[in-house]
Each structure stands twice: as structure tokens, then as C-alpha cells.
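Re: duplicated header lines in exported C-alpha cells

Our pipeline writes sequence and C-alpha cells for each protein into one text file. With two proteins the header for the second block appears twice in some exports. Here is an export where it did not happen, for reference. First protein block:
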Amino acid sequence: MSEEGVNPQRRRLLLATSGLGAVGTVFALTPFVLSMMPSARAKAAGAPVEVDISKVEPGQLLTVEWRGKPVWILRRTPEMLKALTEDEKFLADPKSSVAEQQPTYAQNTTRSLKPEFLVLVGICTHLGCSPAQRLVAGTASGLGDDWPGGFFCPCHGSKFDLAGRVFKNVPAPTNLQVPPYSFISDTRIAIGVDKQGAA
């Protein structure tokens, strides 16, 4: 092909315009591509959460956030643990038979790795309200003399014992969820991952 008749200024202008167009396209697409990547906050929302439980006294409940949900860590007293076997006749699923509600290592009476510490997602399994803590047994809870202690959902009246097991004849269909968790040490828990690596 002959270069006769080709305007060098026009060629430079076309090359410069093409280059600027390419740069402009990259600048225009960058925010769009970056918006598709998860933010640091979104990544952290799914990451395991480490919790120091060294200062949690017997009978005290600590609330932390994991994946945007409240997670309760309750350090149960010997009296609270004793109540778990006494209230089974009032429970809809005392043996925690719905497998999706807890890891296999929490499919027991205490629904925990260590009986003293309970770890629960604090969201009612009925419509997603957050139950109130009514940890004290008896009339002091406002739920009657026979109340063994546990959690009461004020939205529709669902009741759960001190292992998060649902009572019979309430709207909630299943026990409160136990998230995957593991003990890093005697004083630290990792919520969101267990020793088998489940998340």
C-alpha cells in the first residue's frame, strides 16, 4: 500500500484520539468493575469473629456480632445446667433433632461444646425478631412461677430454654440456631468456624 495521499497529521490525530478513547474507557469501567468486588466490610462480615470470654461471669450473657447477626454467649451456672434436664417435657425438640439448627457437636442436651458456655444466634426462628433474655427462673422473669429461665420473643410469644430449645405450642418452629464455633483457648472462642473447618 502506498503512503502517498496519507495525511501524517490526520494519522497522528487518529492515533491520539484512539489512545485517549482507550484511557477514557478504562477510567469509566474501573468504578463498575470495583463495585462488583466485595468491600472490606463485606469480607469481614463473613469472617470468623474471635471473642474473649475471660471476663464473662457465671449467669452473664455477652452479645457479639457475626455476619450481621447478634450472637449470644451465655456462661451458665450449675443451676441453669440442672434446669436443662428438668424442662425437657415442655420442649418441642429436646434432643435437637433438626440437624440444620446446630453443628453435630452441639446436638446434645446443653447444645454446646462445653456445657458451661452456650453460643446461639439471637434471632427467633419464627419471623426473625430478637428474643429478650429472661435468664432468671420463676416470677422475677414476668413469665410465671414455672418459668425455668431462657429467652422470650416479645413479637409473637415464642419461648426458648437456656439451651435455646423451643417450647411446645409456640409460633417458632425450631430451636435457636447454634453457629459453628470452636475454642481457641480456655478464654477465647472463634465464632464462624469450627475445628472441622466448617463455616
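Second protein block, exported in the same file:
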Amino acid sequence: MSIIIKDLHAKIGDTEILKGVNLEIPKGEIHAIMGINGSGKSTLSKVIAGHDDYEVTSGSIEMDGDDILELDVDERSRNGIFLAFQYPMEIPGVSNANFIRATLNARLPEGEELDAVAYYKDLYAKMDSLEMDRKFTARAVNEGFSGGEKKRNEILQMAMLQPKYCILDETDSGLDIDALKIVSKGVNSLRSEERGFLIITHYQRLLDYIKPDVVHVMYDGQIIKSGGPELALELEEKGYDHLKPANA
């Protein structure tokens, strides 16, 4: 089972950003996408998640055999797609605990609700593993959080929701080395044969802690090269210019 993307083209306004992306993310694997700013990496993550700023003009996205392009953001989320944003949003007035609890309840069959004791036991255990103070349960989602706290909070949400496919858009952005290690530990704890990952990053340093199975290079809205973890090391050493298409 996997997410399969075929010849995906997408635009925002009149600007075409994705220009024929082909990608498969099987469950049980971690795939990393690297590329220069403006290559389309973040756009791809948002299009998979169903962000309505982007219009898909052709191509397809299937998840476990089902076409998801006609599903809205909420439906894709409930079906098992999770997107950790580069810049997580603040939600004033809604506590972390209530936000996550409501999200989990929305995934239950009609008429069922979470057991409160079991919920908080699970929440606290996952917060402890991410070295998050339990006071964060009562704080509004991401409001007044540092960059590192926001990223840990994204991983906490992901750990609680247990999605089928996790998309991390530059999760390492703005993290110091200690926070990077903690966030990476949280991601690695979720590795499973029943879960696929797509990690978007500029830098090799994240991939020192979260070991990818496959690395892809994106340039001008297309994936131009794929390889093993050694490809990330090659990019770190030589940069992206030597991989540009001859006509670029």
C-alpha cells in the first residue's frame, strides 16, 4: 500500500509550480525530498494534503488504491494523511489537550467518544518522550510557543493521531541541535511497516537523525533524480547545480 503520484501538475493563480511530479511513497519507508528554494517541495506537500490555494491541473494522487484528489482537507486527514507544517499555525483560545482530543473524537464512529483517563495517560506519555512540560496541555495551540516548541507540538499531534502517511515540511527549520535530536527521536519512534513518511528538507543534518530509505531531488517542479541516502551526502558536498538538467 502506498501513495502514488503520477504526472502531477499544479498551479497557484496563473503560476504553474508542479510540472509533472511522479512519486511513490510505500508504507514502511521514509522518503526525503531535497531541493533549492522555489523548486516545489512545499507545494507538493500541500497539494497532497489538499490545500485549497493550489489547483491541480492534471495528474493523479492515489492513497492505498483510492483517488484522493476530490477529497477535501478534512477527509484526507481522516483517511490518514498528516502534514506537519514548516510554520505551524497558532489557534488562540483552543488548548492543546482539547484540540487533539477533538481531532481524535472526529475519527471515531458516530456516538463513540474517547475514554478521558486513557486519553490523558497516552498524551502525557508522548509528551514525556518529547520532553514537553505537561503545562502545554492547557496552553492554546502554538500560541506564544518558540519555534522548537511548535515543532515538538506538531510531532505530538502526529504521535497521537497515528496517521498512515506523515508529511514533514522542513521540520528541521529553526531547530537547534538539541531540539532537532528530540524531534527526530519522536519521528523515529513512529516508524512502522504500516506507515509511510515524506520528509522535505534542505539539509543533510536532519537525515543524520532520521535515516531515509530513498532520497529525491526536486528541481523546477519535477523530481529529477532519486537514490539512496548517499544522494543526500552528494548534495551536501556538491550542491544542486551539478544535477540541473542540461536545458535548465
